[in-house]
Design goal:
The complex is a heterodimer of chains A (about 220) and B (about 160). With about 220 residues, chain A is an alpha+beta fold. Chain A is built from 9 helices and 10 strands. Chain A folds into 2 domains: about 40 residues, no CATH class; about 170 residues, 3-Layer(aba) Sandwich (Glutaredoxin), CATH 3.40.30. In chain A, the strands form 3 sheets. Chain A has a 6-stranded mixed sheet with strand order 1-10-9-4-5-6. Chain A has a two-stranded antiparallel ribbon with strand order 2-3. In chain A, strands 7-8 form a two-stranded antiparallel sheet. In chain A, helix 5 crosses helix 9. Chain B is mainly beta and about 160 residues long. Chain B has one domain: Immunoglobulin-like (Sandwich). Classes of the chains: A alpha+beta (about 220), B mainly beta (about 160). The interface between A and B is large, with 43 and 37 residues.
Chain lengths: ~220, ~160
């Protein structure tokens, strides 16, 4: 994944460094809100020079029905994220950030957008569990579960590396989530924009209207 | 940032340093012996069984301290999780170095509340007890924020 990020401009890299310096507790930094007022330095999005092809994922949705990701999202602006429901921090934050931003779109645009959450923990995330969790975020989000090998292979084609759920030495269950959200263009069906974990509600609110048109945010 | 009147100047300075980046409005609390806690919040959870919590413990003292255990009225179990790459692992204890801080923040190390007794809602406060190797426990009133709360922007 890192290699893909090198496609980002130096400006973007600089912005990212500023953000993470603040995030890591260097408390003498300027607040990010102030820094990000400067045009061009506030992009959460990384535009990919070589877009990803849509992964060939045929999985099960929260109704227990087969869902063919390529067929269902063809020609639709689409966001995909790989996570799991027993994740207290990054997974619900990422999904809620997108859901809150989506609510600020027009009704027509909301209906165009496909938001797909693919579980990385299919053993625990049954269709019913996924459905219950996503209902607390946005019932329009598509939740997919199924065979881990299929999910892992699909994630890999997007540069996302995940391992199966395992137990640690204390018998605690450990799962893994993806590190980014990928946006697919309705024009080309290519995955052309990446968002990291630092992307906020405001970032998605600003960018979604462009992604819905297939434009660069 | 409301502050309890009893906090020392040192603690105040610490709290200000902490919030320079975070802009947090959580109550600072201190044991008066060098440890202080700031920037505490819990995003309103999606799940009705688990939640995350974040805070910063500052150690103004000359000796290191260790966070050994966390308890809360709302959860059957609270564990400290280290984020290692894309996975989390439970930490037995976490060091708070002398003249240093332990930062539990979104995307990094965090508190994980499990077996929730009730679902915390935005606007509530959740009492959390921090237990240390040497210092007596500190109780933090952790505010529940929106599910998308970002301490960097304060909303």
């Amino acid at each position: 994944m890192r290699k893909k990020l090198f496609a980002a401009s130096a400006l973007l890299v600089a912005a990212t460094l500023t953000l993470s310096a603040c995030g890591s507790g260097d408390s003498d930094n300027q607040s990010v809100a102030d820094v990000s007022v400067e045009a061009g330095s506030d992009k959460a999005a990384t535009i990919l020079d070589q877009p990803f092809e849509k992964p060939d994922l045929v999985l099960t949705d929260t109704q227990g029905k087969p869902y063919d990701f390529r067929a269902e999202t063809k020609g639709r602006p689409t966001l995909i994220y790989f996570g799991y429901t027993n994740c207290p921090d990054v997974c619900p934050l990422t999904m809620n950030n997108i859901a809150v931003a989506k609510k600020q779109l027009s009704k027509a645009d909301q209906d165009k957008l496909r938001i797909v959450f693919v579980t990385t923990d299919p053993k625990r995330d049954t269709p019913a569990e996924l459905g219950k969790w996503l209902k607390g975020i946005d019932p329009q989000v598509v939740g997919l579960t199924g065979d881990f090998a299929t999910i892992q292979a699909g994630a890999r084609t997007l540069g996302i590396s995940i391992e199966p759920t395992s137990k640690d030495k204390n018998g605690k269950t450990i799962s893994m989530h993806g590190t980014q959200v990928i946006a697919f263009s309705p024009k080309t069906d290519g995955g052309y924009v990446l968002y990291g974990e630092d992307a906020t509600v405001d970032d998605y609110t600003k960018d979604l209207p462009k992604i819905i048109k297939g434009q660069n945010p | 940032m409301r502050r309890v009147p009893s906090v020392t100047a040192a603690v105040l300075a610490g709290a200000l340093a902490l919030t320079a980046c975070g802009g947090s409005d959580s109550d600072g609390s201190s044991d008066g012996a060098g440890l202080s806690v700031g920037s505490a919040y819990m995003p309103q959870p999606v799940s009705d069984t688990m939640a995350a919590g974040f805070l910063v413990i500052t150690n103004k003292g000359a000796a290191g301290e260790v966070l050994t255990r966390v308890t809360s009225e709302v959860a059957g179990e609270v564990t400290v999780h280290r984020t290692v790459g894309q996975t989390m692992e439970e930490a037995e204890s976490l060091d708070i170095p002398a003249h240093g801080e332990l930062v539990l923040q979104s995307g990094g190390d965090h508190l994980m509340f499990e077996q929730l007794k009730r679902k915390p809602r935005e606007g509530e406060k959740v009492a959390v007890q921090l237990h240390f190797a040497k210092t007596s426990p500190i109780t933090v009133e952790m505010p529940v924020k929106s599910a998308t709360y970002n301490p960097k922007t304060g909303h």
